[in-house]
Amino acid sequence: MGAIWPSFGRHLPFHRHRFLRRHAELAGYRKNFTILDREDSKDLLKTCLAESEIDTKATRFPKPEVLGDIFSMAMNTQKPIPEVLAEQYDYFSMLAPQIEALAGKYESRKRATNVLDFDDLLVSWLRLLQTDAEIREQYQRRFQFVLVDEYQDTNKIQADIIDLLAERHQNVMVVGDDSQSIYSWRGANFKNILQFPQRYPRPRSSN
After folding, report:
1. pLDDT of 81-127, one tens digit each?
2. pLDDT tens column, 134-144
3. φ and ψ at 205, to 5 degrees?
4. What is the DSSP string of 27-78?
5. What distance in Å separates the CA atoms of residue 177 and residue 114, rounded to the nearest whole number?
């Protein structure tokens, strides 16, 4: 049996990219999909804004980079956009319907052009593990041990992926320090490491 060191926390999305490339068609993409970096995402959001004909000056609408942050936070925390706005961008709360509509347009454009951003890689990975029993069992059998670095910087999606991969063998080793969490702006939740004993009873610690 093998082990996996998921590229979570502060690391690049190597494993999630390889996983999704292999199962792209099941996730609704073609295998030659392109991954958008932050600038690419911002450019696509600019296009979506222009097509929506929203008067950004009259409504003080969030800029593309801010929209990207809002959409990313909603995806990584698995929260509705209005809830994210209320919690972190309350000055845009009255624009929730327009922002949600723009998020839908952004998703449609990505699908139509066979592109994904980094958040899509995680969301698609989790969705496949949740909905496809054959794939889930394949990867659970393949990886007897799951190792995760910087566990305090995992978000809800990442923690759920880890739980699904480890569901069969329950062999999970995490390394982290709740006082060093620095990725809350991407939905990271330091409580994941504090709640590890609840997720995996009878854990052993090493100092």
Report:
1. 999 999 999 999 999 999 999 999 999 999 999 999 989 988 999 99
2. 999 998 888 88
3. -115, 155
4. GTS-TT-EE--HHHHHHHHHHHHHHHT--HHHHTPPPHHHHHHHHHHHHHHT
5. 38
